[in-house]
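User: ABC transporter permease. Structure?
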Amino acid sequence: MFRTALRTVLAHKARLLMTVLAVMLGVAFVSGTLVFTDTLGNAFNKQSAKSYKDVAVSVTTYYADDQETDGKKQEPGLSPKVLDEIGAIDGVASVTPRVEGFAGVADPDGKLIGNGWSNTGTNFAPGENGKDPAYDFTEGTGPTEAGQVALDKDTASRGEYKVGGPVRVATNGPVKEYTLSGIFTTEDGAVNAGGSLVLFDPSVAQKLFLKPGYFQMANVTAAPGASDTKIRGDIESLVPKDAEVQTGKQLADQQAADIERELSGINQMLLAFAAIALFVGIFLISNTFTMLVAQRTKELALLRAVGASRRQVKRSVLAEALIVGLVASTIGFVLGVGLAVGLRSAMGQFGAKVPAGPLMITPVAVAAAFGVGVVITLIAAWLPARRAAKIPPVAAMSSVHAVATMKSLVLRNSIGAVLTLIGAAGIIAGAGVGKDGKLLIGAGAFFSLVGVIVLIPLLSRPVIALVQPLLNRLYGVAGKLAGQNAVRNPRRTGATASALAIGLTLVTGLTTVGVTLGTAIDKATTDNIKADYMITMAGGGGGLDESAVKALEKAPGVSAVSPQRASYLVIDGEDSFASGVTPGDIQQLLALKTETGSLDSLSGDAIAVASDTAKSRGWKTGDTVTVKYEDDKTARLKIGATYEPNEFTSPTLISTDLVGPHEERPHTPEVYVSMDGGATEANELALVDALGDNPAISVADQQDIRNQFGGMINTALNIMYGLLGMALIIAVLGVVNTLAMSVFERQQEIGMLRAIGLDRRRVKRMIRLEAVVISVFGALVGVGLGTFLAWAIGETIRGSIPGYVLVLPWERIGIFLVLAGLVGVLAALWPARSAAKLNMLTAIKTE
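Assistant: Predicted structure:
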């Protein structure tokens, strides 16, 4: 029977090609994901181990202005005295202190190299030999004077900087020009992430990022034979209690665990989409084997007649599936390895530097790829194999294919209806629960999807019947025949449409939720921000320096300017986050809706509080509260106003004149600016000039602000579309496969139609229309279910998204349906051409 199965596979190579492609694509995604993440994990882990190879102990301090230790103000970092004490510990060979913060440089076009969070500045820390152990200089030397800096090799290359030449370096203060003293290579994570690293003279770095004379951290190397654990214990007694003291091995292990956690998220996401693709592939595989079994009814019946048992016939079909699964898995695994190599190269194209390392092909990746490919194929072929085993020997006497019994159809439809009702009830119940209903919705979505898939054959008849009059009117005989062919075999139509329905359910659901969230965010932005511009550090690279705020206040054409300083207060004994703002100007820049009192009171000794905060704390306008600032000084301030909660401000507003004197290092995430004449190119240029043409500072107008808040959603949607694209490709292969099989089955019928006058053009049109009808039917089911799921998901997040109102993206839905029709047309090209080329007389003689 195995030899029979092998001969059958070889005899039907063309018909099984689509099945091989479907399994191959799914396996390629699975194997590519596993090989890619294993390769990255191995490379980063080796890099991590290399980075901490010579580190015995690392010390990191966390400074806060208001912290005290044993009744004394905590020092801002590691002082020279503490560093000397650490160096004197028995077994310590050397101590390398560091201080770091944001620092960026521009490319030749004046744009920031990197993305803000990966732009780092630190100090050059030479040892006794004059070299810094963390950096290998390829040109020049490290900075030894206040006016010098050194750059990593990639940044110097991208910025076209030369040793001895000028470099403009941006921190959170004004841009300063330095002389490039050297270029180095490094394994620093910021550089590997596509960012930049600037080395300063130690005194300059301390002044920029902390305080003169202090360092944030230090790496300790041990003398031969010394115990890292003992050194760590001795250091812990010298540094503040909240300082983090770890051995090099602990740091390497922690970083390895962090890397694994990060890659695990990517791994799970990619594997989830691979699972979707394989799930869609099940319908294609099952459809293929169902049609092959139907076409070989006489052959299988003859096998039964000459003595083959049901079990042997079933094994024969499963053996065919096993062969197909093995072949497809082998090709898919090879493609997956190629995909992993491509993804690794693509990361480099996007600016991320991937550490060197071998391609990791683990036994787990091989076993998963072949296991998934073979198992999925066998599962999909099991039902057709079971049907094949039930073919009676007497069927060899007839050319009529076995048809589904009424009992099986009734049972199928009943199960489908029950599953759909259970799923719909779960989705509605989850939507009613709110934010805690996601699990119910997920379970309901699964049952609904399975139920609808089971019911699709039943649904196909009435739905397609609705468009039958239109087909008749527009396309005549070809349209009438196409509609009849689409519902002739409801199971086959249902299986083909199911693949498209799954893909469109996910695409429509994601699109609807994404567009709704984007609209809500866009509305919140336009409703709450009246300013012409929002000034921030590029890429969220920290807060703006006070010098930037003062420069903006002096810029020509500015009519209103206010920082939104992130301040920390203790009000009546409770911690409170506050926004430090400029009274008078803030009302012109943000749409703050006052409920009681007046925001003008901010110009005096008063604060304004969000109404929900005031209610929860039992405050009302006119009350006096005790405010404790960051420097522990206190003041009695009035509640001058309450305002409607606003997602762009903190629950408390306070004048910068009141809070400023108490903050040693103010943190200003953004500054809002309005200008005479509104947002114009000239006004934007005036702001850029006022800020010293600083590449690290972003000047965003209203549209930029909206894009900034809503851009992440569009990016996520585009990624999702790309990942779901493979599932849709498999669905298209399913349509092609179904039509090709259908043409093969109906050779005699097509020959008769040609004989009675249906020309080749109308034969092609008939096949194309059939494909379009099936594709659009599947798309309609998917759009309906996807919209229903999007509504339910929206109900769970409505409470956390101000102004959330479900938005149906009719334009995109229309595009999806048009694309589904186009898919049908393209999928029908080959089958339609094959049908039109059939020899009339040969086709009529075909059984």
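The domain at 542-695 is CATH 2.40.70 (Cathepsin D, subunit A; domain 1). Residues 438-488 form the longest helix (51 residues).
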